[in-house]
Amino acid sequence: MRFAEVRCIEMLAGFSFYDRGRSVTSSLIKTQFAVLASLLVVGACSDGTGPEGGVLSPSYLLPSVSVGESHACGLASDGYAYCWGANDYGQLGNSSHGGYPEGDQYTPRRVTVNRRFVQISAGATHNCAVTADRETYCWGSNEHGQAGNPHYERIQVPLMIASDLEFHIVSARYSHTCGLTSDGKAYCWGYNHRGQLGVDTSIHSSSRPVSVGGDLRFRAIAAGGSHTCGITHSGDAYCWGGSMDLFLEPVRVVTDSLVFTEISAGVYYTCAISADMHAHCWFDDYQSTRPLSIGFPLINNTVGNGYGCSVTTDHDAYCWGDNYHGRLGTGDTEYRRVPALVTGGLQFNLVSTFDQTTCGVTLGGETYCWGWNYRGQVGNGSTEESWVPVKVNIP
Q1: Which has the least CB within 10 A, 35, 112, 127, 293?
Q2: What mean pLDDT is predicted for residues 20-31?
Q3: How many domains does the chain contain in total?
């Protein structure tokens, strides 16, 4: 059997693992899997392999993308991980680290590990990814244990976390990471100065996943700045940690009987999509929600540091908030109090935000980025910021 055929079978097995309902994820993750699966015919089921540690070949796409503080990572159509941008902490996973500009990578390069992943999440300066066999690998900064390694030092290649737990979804953000097991149990690791791990702050940090307090089971989870939120199987939103008040165990977000399906956490606030496909947001006191005034049903919503973006059912992308470096993709740098349409006429399946850069994946599986590009995190081979979406350069 040819390698391409083996790769195709393994990847299909990975997707069917989720499709059979043995794991429950947010609709965002399901969308990523759907796009990946639709592209297997040109990726995993083709004879293009992509060189280890090398650049993407022209036949490769990045149908899944996650943005970090000054870097971004994506999964190719065969499940291999690629990263680009800053590499101060080894977050590109290419066996090295380096500051500006010698360590930066302006186009995607494959992460140095012979593993195929089904989901990836970029934190500020670290990343975590999950294989179809539920193995979790992390790399990059680890000073608080957020990469799951007990040595508390930067990790330049992906390593399995120090745990036997099997996660089907992970969420990395600033200095902590969280994951869900197949039965919906939440675990977190990394920094815990505000209770974002869901345990008492006497545990300052942990490189090993710790069980979030309470006996809740979640279908989705999102790590934020110094808080974490999740959605239970019944559709209730719970959060813990935070900058205003310390909630050391999950606290139910006060809503008007809303049922949620997807959630995204930023630095200070969180947004979730309800069953009627509209977004609602709240600050980290968790005491009240506000509807997000887009006026269209949504399939994806993501919030970063002072801004957010959404994708409608018509696959239009809208962004709002501070517009530093053109990160809203509106062709200017003006603040938007209400969501504004991203320019370019592109149709997106998902968008990803973090700090000053935004990326999105189109219906055709192509990745576009815009905003700050000082470290090459837009991925177009330059360091010039872009106020409109530009295609990530596939060399």
Answers
A1: 293
A2: 39
A3: 1
